[in-house]
Amino acid sequence: MSEAKTMSVGVIKTDKLAKLTVWKDYAKAAQDAAAARKAQTDAKAKLKEHFATKLEVAEKDALDFTVEGSTVRVFINLVEKKPKRTSNAGPDLSDKF
User: Fold this and answer.
1) In a domain, 6, yes or no
2) Residues 63 and 57: beta-carbon distance below 8 Å
3) Is residue 96 part of a domain?
4) By C-alpha distance, which of 78, 79, 76, 80 is closest to 57?
């Protein structure tokens, strides 16, 4: 097994951070970023479906593409992506805020 790349310090409850301006700024930016990611994901799925139809590809779930400057490279993933792992969150640090 490979050596750990990070170490959890602990967790902080978001209600403890709610009064901080910097937290409010972060929360708004994170919400905006999540909405943009969802819009991008939806648009990409529609484009992948269009590519699969036009190219008559049977492996629709494995079809993907990447934008490379002025071209778009379309490819089929031969290896299934591994799901992300979660780790232990650690001690509660909320009392420090």
Assistant:
1) no
2) yes
3) no
4) 76
Rounded to 10 degrees, what is the CA torsion of 49, 50, 56, 59? Answer: -20
Integer angstrom CA distances of residue 91 from 23, 51, 66, 68? 20, 48, 41, 44
What global pTM score does this model have? 0.66
Q: How many domains does the chain have?
A: 1
Q: What does the pLDDT average to over 27-56?
A: 96
Residue 1 lies in a domain: no
Report the greatest alpha carbon distance in the chain. Answer: 58
> Residue 92: CB partners within 8 Å, gap ≥ 6?
10, 11, 12, 13
Q: Quick one: pLDDT at residue 42?
A: 97
Tell me the residue range of the domain where 71 lies.
14-80
